[in-house]
Write a structure and sequence with these properties.
The complex is a heterodimer of chains A (about 120) and B (about 425). With about 120 residues, chain A is an alpha+beta fold. Chain A contains four helices and six strands, in the order βααββββααβ. In chain A, the strands form two sheets. A four-stranded antiparallel β-sheet of chain A has the order 2-5-1-6. A two-stranded antiparallel sheet of chain A has the order 3-4. The radius of gyration of chain A is 17 Å and the shape is flat. In chain B, α6 crosses α7. Classes of the chains: A alpha+beta (about 120), B mainly alpha (about 425).
């Protein structure tokens, strides 16, 4: 089962990741990614650019309107994601708990819909 | 094209045999498996063009052995370079060929490999991946495609599985008699998982996943040939044949799921049904009863009904009762509730579901809500049914299931509007 792990940032995480303990935190992230790669659970991961680079697109009455920035200034912002393929929701939550952002801000675990299904 | 398919089939057949010979000769499952993959790849490229060699098995063994010797040599050279300071190069068992024991029949090797790949120390995902590669002869890219993950991810999964086998130190031989039955259950479960992975996805944009059902049937057939006296092996083969027989009509061309009661039965595969029914009828007459046989028997009763309304529900109910007695699985109770409803009416089925609610193991499961919705619909309680369909649709993580459940809910909402008394 695949899960999308959303990595959330807030001013506190940003400070931590760019401040004194940054090397240690990056070390944690690297070790976790290495482990997930070796276990064959990691499907992909990406970091997102700062929210100020966001464009919001809306089409109303057939007319696209493109505005700069996210919809609202939020305290917690999406900073990146991982996709893992693992045995159970518990395992997905365990991975999320080990990502440093879980301590400073939050991680969100969302199951990814499957194409497969059984007749009822 | 034809030639390619022929080569492909032959290679998959030979893969476990060649691997068996290699492992007997060199003893390192891990490296041998890589060497065999390389040989298979070389054959897949060369044979369709230059023709299949006279002795294809021998060809593969020779090519794979050459890779092995190359690898052992470069490995030894590397180690020598690293250990220049050491006075003695330690004797390495892995460089010494094991006793040439190629008189062992190839069939036994396939069985040993199946046991090995389905070692209980490995995760289910690893067992499945390794079985498909080492016994099924599938390439990593194909397995990755079937499971919708990047090739690199699948490659990691396979090498981790191989490391797991190495660490567990299992020798290349049949598991001891005392463990055999338990180990065989794992093998059967892995084959069932492979089948299910392909079956539940045998439509829509991922047609190649359907290949997995074919592979599971092929491996189950091979296992049945090797262990004709095992009732559960026959039961599993019958079950997957009887289930696969329905695949032509279980989805609409757009991928939407069609429930059993609404399937076009004229499109079911008669050949598979005949074979499955014969297998299960035979096995039930002599083998100690087991869960796969019972599930196959239930599938046979469904498959033998000309029309949905001809289904022998009392028979299905009796089989579910038996199955429930030998396997403590709330899913079985859930299915029994459907049979109860068909025999004694929806109320009786709903009463049984309440015990499942109390049991707690299924409370968050969309299938419980889906069955409840169906039974409520049968009972004419449309508003409650609609609500349960919606809950089930929210809980499922399958797109086609969600679509089906939402459609059922929407249909009920329309009916309700149409039948509303005029104001």
């Amino acid at each position: 089962m695949k899960y999308l792990l959303l990595i959330y940032d807030n001013p506190e995480t940003r400070e931590a990741f760019f401040g004194e303990g940054a090397d240690e935190l990056m070390g944690e992230v690297d070790a976790l990614l290495k482990e997930l790669t070796e276990s064959g659970e990691l499907v992909g991961t990406q970091a997102l650019a700062d929210p100020s680079n966001t464009k919001t697109v809306r089409v109303r009455g057939g007319v696209p309107a493109i505005t700069d920035g996210p919809f609202a200034e939020a305290k917690e912002q999406l900073g990146g994601y991982l996709i893992v393929d693992c045995e159970s929701p518990e395992r997905a939550a365990e991975i999320a708990a080990r990502w440093p952002n879980a301590r400073y801000c939050a991680m969100e675990v969302r199951p990814i819909m499957e194409e497969a299904g059984t007749e009822m | 094209m034809r030639e390619d398919a022929h080569t492909e089939g032959l290679l998959r057949e030979l893969a476990p045999q060649v691997l068996g010979v290699l492992v007997r000769r060199y003893g390192q499952f891990d490296a041998c498996e890589d060497a065999v993959q390389e040989a298979l790849l070389a054959a897949a490229l060369q044979w369709p063009e230059r023709g299949v060699p006279e002795n294809p098995r021998g060809w593969l063994v020779t090519v794979a052995s050459r890779r092995m010797t190359d690898q052992v040599r470069s490995e030894a050279a590397r180690r020598r370079r690293e250990e220049t300071a050491a006075a003695l190069v330690p004797a390495d068992e892995s460089v010494v060929p094991a006793a040439n024991d190629e008189s062992v029949p190839a069939e036994d090797d396939t069985l040993i490999l199946l046991f090995m790949c389905c070692h209980p120390a490995l995760s289910a995902a690893s067992q499945v991946a390794l079985t498909l590669r080492a016994v099924g002869g599938l390439r990593t890219a194909e397995i990755a495609r079937a499971f919708l993950v990047p090739e690199a991810t699948m490659a990691q999964r396979i090498s981790r599985a191989k490391r797991g086998i190495k660490a567990s130190g299992v020798p290349f031989r049949m598991p001891p008699e005392t463990e055999r039955a338990d180990r065989l259950r794992v093998v059967l479960h892995v084959l069932y998982l492979i089948f299910n992975e392909g079956y539940t996805a045998s439509s829509g944009p991922h047609l190649e996943r359907g290949e997995l059902t074919g592979e599971a049937i092929r491996l189950a057939r091979a296992l049945h040939r090797l262990l004709p006296d095992d009732g559960e092996v026959a039961g599993l083969l019958a079950l997957i044949l009887l289930t696969d027989a329905r695949s032509p009509s279980r989805t609409r061309p757009d991928g939407a799921l069609v429930p059993l009661a609404e399937q076009d039965r004229s499109r079911w595969d008669r050949g598979s049904i005949r074979e499955g029914v014969a297998l299960v009828t035979d096995v039930l007459s002599w083998a100690p009863i087991g869960p796969y046989q019972l599930q196959a028997a239930i599938a046979a009763v469904h498959d033998e009904a000309e029309r949905a309304e001809d289904t022998d529900w009392p028979q299905i109910l009796a089989l579910y009762e038996l199955l429930e007695r030998i396997s403590d699985n709330p899913m079985v109770t859930l299915n029994r509730a459907v049979a109860v409803a068909m025999v004694r009416g929806p109320r009786a089925g709903l009463d049984l579901l309440e015990t499942l609610d109390a049991d707690g193991r299924l409370t968050d499961h969309h299938r419980l809500d889906a069955v409840q919705a169906h039974l409520l619909e049968m009972a004419g309680e449309f508003a409650a049914a609609r609500c349960c369909y919606r809950t089930a649709a929210r809980r499922t993580t399958s797109l086609p299931e969600q679509r089906y459940l939402e459609a059922r809910a929407a249909r009920l909402a329309e009916n309700e509007q149409n039948s509303a008394p005029p104001t």
